[in-house]
Amino acid sequence: MIVQRRAVSAVLAASALLVTAGCSSDAEESPGASASASPGRKAAQTSPAAEETPPAKGTVKVVRTVAEGLNTPWGLAPLPEGGLLVASRDEGTITRVDEKTGRKTELGEVPGVSAAGEGGLLGLALSPDYASDHMVYAYFTSASDNRIVRMIYDTKRPAGDQLGAPDTVFKGIPKGMIHNGGRIAFGPDGMLYAGTGESGDRGLAQDKKSLGGKILRLTPEGEPAAGNPFPDSPVYSYGHRNVQGLAWDSKQRLFASEFGQNTWDELNAIMPGADYGWPAAEGRSEDAKYRNPTAQWHTDDASPSGIAYAEGSIWMAGLKGQRLWRIPLKGTAASADPQAFLKGEYGRLRTVVSAGGDKLWVTTSNTDGRGDPKTGDDRILELEVS
Questions:
Q1: 27 pLDDT band (50/70/90 cuts)?
Q2: Is the whole-model pTM more than 0.85?
Q3: Residues 6+ apart with CB under 8 A from 254
């Protein structure tokens, strides 16, 4: 493990949040996946009775297509001043999309991106202090590893030259043709969370000294965050296969999506220091030492990537499943069977981001080498959900 250590300008108090995450699928979708449908299964945990439970059934309405003609979109970050930043996995570029007109403006290319297989320019996140520092964080695959960098976004510079030189805040995450993880997000505690994959080397997921197959928790400067479960380690949870979705609910509990191999994809509620079982367990296990998923699916029905929280539910994008899943919650348990929407209507779905209230942004992923691109792909959709 190689962690670039930097002086931390201020010690941020770590909140003892209840967190959740997961990972699944052998490449992003497994050729041997079962075709039979299986509703998500409830986790054993319960939550306070006072917590409001959403309706068992919800709705999804596609309000509009926000933008078209995107190449391998992966990370998506809404800007507070308006606009959406979109990462192109294969081109290594970041583009700003005007969410009102769909106009695209390329900010620039991120140096050092080495796109191959499932690797490339992946997750994006804005600094907690973006209003003052204009820092954009990016997770990408380099020639030697997966790493996290941050760059100043300067709107006063010409289009194509608006990204400052990348400052590497964390490196040494294992890379591979598959299972590079890639989702990053700042949590309610101001810390940077990163979902990683085991890069095809199963043993890394159970090795707490490895950065592969983990959820990491870092300071904005890339140091292990105070309060992490393992001393001087960025590892927050382990036993993951390939984490590509991170989201917090209204009670600041973390959830994560996980690619399974041939049998079960997962949505997990993350507890600090918990073992999510891979490679010994895929999906629900009778072994008490492994944390069971909140919900699970056959891999043909999901192969999940991004997730978001809205209207009391987690919303999960399916790649091979080509659908959007709604998982209504009560605490960290599913309060009803997951419900599928948009099945096959827009092809592979990659990223889901809250657009505030009952709105979501969703990106398609049909130009990633595994899809069947149609005219206009790839695109960003605006959804209204309940």
A1: low
A2: yes
A3: 17, 18, 19, 20, 21, 187, 193, 215, 246, 247, 248, 269, 270
